[in-house]
Design a protein that fits this description.
The protein has helices at residues 6-29, 48-56, 67-76, 93-99, 109-122, 148-157, 176-193, 208-214, 223-226, and strands spanning 38-42, 61-64, 81-84, 102-106, 126-131, 161-167, 199-201, 218-221. With 234 residues, it is of the alpha/beta class. An eight-stranded parallel beta sheet has the order 7-6-5-4-3-2-1-8. The chain starts with 5 loop residues before the first helix and ends in an 8-residue tail after the last helix. Bound molecules: pyridoxal-5'-phosphate. Pyridoxal-5'-phosphate (PLP) binds at residues 42, 44, 65, 85-86, 169, 204-206, 220-224.
Length: 234
């Protein structure tokens, strides 16, 4: 592998500084501490060299949404925590369970079963977040809020899994502040039954401030760190 282009390294450092400034300002505005927040660098489509630069700058959490790409990057950068943030087809569950530390996108019982089996076989413990659909359009991923209690019980009792919390993407055309407030309510109900499941994964490049204000613990930030993804890749 050739070393990263120095100007790209500077660009990533500048982007990270800007994101850190936004996160810190949002935490202060919300009366929270930066240390309560985990920045997950969503690195899909970007080369491993970029991730290595960010790792060197102190970023320890990376997120990916496609199994094959994630698997390769996780193998190339082991000194990091890997978050799977995209839809998981059940036939990819075993692969995802082999490198992911956290799966943010669990939205059905059959996926829990598959992840549990794979984690147990591999001798690993996976943290799982229940992805919620906040607009009822489950085609874009996420379970209906009404399905959460049963999914939570299944996750909490599955071998090889640790129920860690909830995740959502703000619906298109919705006010993110209202969407994240709804997610916070669902989180509070979950925590009442499962006190350790305190993670709230919410907020991306465009709406991280609203997410921090609503109580998010994990921010999934892609384009503000790496730049805009070229549509041809998707
Ligand atoms: C791509 C992606 C992100 C990051 O989005 P940006 O707008 O680029 O910050 C966050 N969450 C999920 C689930 C994603 O697929």
């Amino acid at each position: 592998m050739t070393g990263p282009d120095p100007s790209r390294g500077q660009e990533l450092a500048d982007n990270l500084a800007e994101v850190e400034q936004r996160v810190t300002a949002a935490a202060h505005a919300a009366g929270r501490s930066r240390s309560e927040l985990t920045l997950v660098a969503v690195s899909k489509t970007w080369p491993l060299a970029d991730l290595v630069v960010l790792r060197g700058l102190g970023v320890g959490d990376f997120g990916e949404n496609r199994d094959q790409e994630a698997k390769g990057k996780a193998a190339g950068l082991t000194a990091a925590r890997w978050h799977f943030v995209g839809a998981v087809q059940s036939n990819k569950a075993a692969s995802v369970a082999s490198y992911a530390d956290v799966v943010h996108s669990v939205d059905r019982g059959s996926l829990l079963t598959a992840l549990s089996r794979a984690a147990t076989t591999g001798g690993r413990t996976l943290e799982v977040l229940l992805q919620v659909s906040l607009d009822g359009d489950t085609a874009r991923g996420g379970a209906l809020p009404s399905a959460l209690p049963a999914l939570a019980l299944a996750a909490a009792t599955a071998a090889g899994l640790r129920l860690a919390g909830v995740m959502a993407v703000a619906p298109r055309d919705a006010d993110p502040a209202r969407a994240f407030a709804e997610l916070a309510r669902l989180s509070a109900a979950l925590v009442a039954d499962h006190p350790q499941a305190t993670v709230i994964s919410a907020g991306m490049s465009g709406d991280l401030e609203q997410a921090v204000l609503a109580g998010a613990t994990h921010l999934r930030v892609g384009s503000a760190l790496f730049g805009h993804r070229t549509p041809v890749f998707r």
